[in-house]
Amino acid sequence: MTTAPHAGPRAAQVPTQSTYQNRVADYWNAEENPVNLELGKLDDLYHHHYGLGAAGRSVLDEPDPLRRRERITAELHRLEHAQAELLAARLGPLGPEDRVFDAGCGRGGGSVVAHLSYGCHADGVTISEKQAEFANAQARKRGIDDRVRYHHRNMLDTGLPSGAYAASWNNESTMYVELDLLFAEHARLLRRGGRYVVITGCYNDTYGRASREVSLINAHYICDIHPRSAYFRALARNRLVPVHVEDLTEAALPYWELRKEADHLATGIEETFLTAYRNGSFQYLLIAADRV
User: How far apart are CA 144 and CA 115, in angstroms?
Assistant: First the structure.
């Protein structure tokens, strides 16, 4: 297979389309959250998502305060990296000739993980100009900027070539957009048989409307969390057929329990996440779907 060049066939649209999207861009352009930055500094893999798996809580027993902070930071980063690797594992099989698309790429960690896993080309898109510049600088630092590139564009209208991608994903970024518009763009970009993966928090609409905790999370991140059922309806309307669905809620709890104990990284939203997960009103879900 011959890969298409990274540059799209047309100029990208202005990255924002609404007052709300301008607010989102402003938020991420100004964001300097230690829970994102301090963890990424450990190995120059900057993720903008949460962690999965059993946490090594012995880090909390470290008597030296400075060393305790360092060990907690490293453990949280290990958990968030495990989440990125889980998502990447669902994209394959892929090879060095394939291209993948990272929608809402943040500071770029997910695209790097995909490239390191498969040797593939990656295009990341973010509405934040600052994030795109940071991620491209990291790719140059790693010497992979010929294969991993980031674009300041809107993930709903990327300007990237149709049918050029073997796989694509969203990692905790779907709550900022309308799902039908988003999945239509993924369906356009993916070749037939291409794989789409999303990991997201969604509210459990078998419980009715969004809970108080979900509303607090929305306010904290200026987002709009979708109900679980909306994902499956929108996927079906856009030729994306689920092949694997996994409830990651239980696996997410240890990350939040440890982060709550991290005075240097906690943002105040930790107990809200834990309450929402435990009362069943909020779920952490992975969906893998094939483009038909």
Answer: 9
> Residues 53-84, buried b or exposed e (16+ Cβ, 10 A)?
bebeeebeeeeeeeebbbbbbebbbbbbbebb
Averaged confidence pLDDT in the chain: 93
Q: Which residues pair with 197 in a beta bridge?
A: 169, 288
Q: What is the pLDDT of residues 163-222, one digit of tens each?
A: 999 999 999 999 999 999 999 999 999 999 999 999 999 999 998 899 999 999 999 999
pLDDT tens digits for 28-51?
888 887 888 888 888 989 998 999
Taking CA atoms, 128 is separated from 15, 23, 84, 153, 268, in Å, by 9, 10, 21, 8, 24
DSSP, collapsed to helix, strand or coil, labels residue 214 as: helix
Contact 165, 137 (CB under 8 A): no
Predicted model pTM: 0.92
CB neighbour class for 269 (10 Å; exposed up to 12, middle 13-18, buried from 19): middle
At residue 4, the 3 state secondary structure works out as coil
- Taking a C-beta distance cutoff of 8 angstroms, is the pair 198, 155 a contact? no
H runs (alpha helix) in 90-142: 109-118, 129-142
Number of residues that make up the chain: 292
Rg (CA), the chain: 18
CB 170 within 8 A of CB 100: no
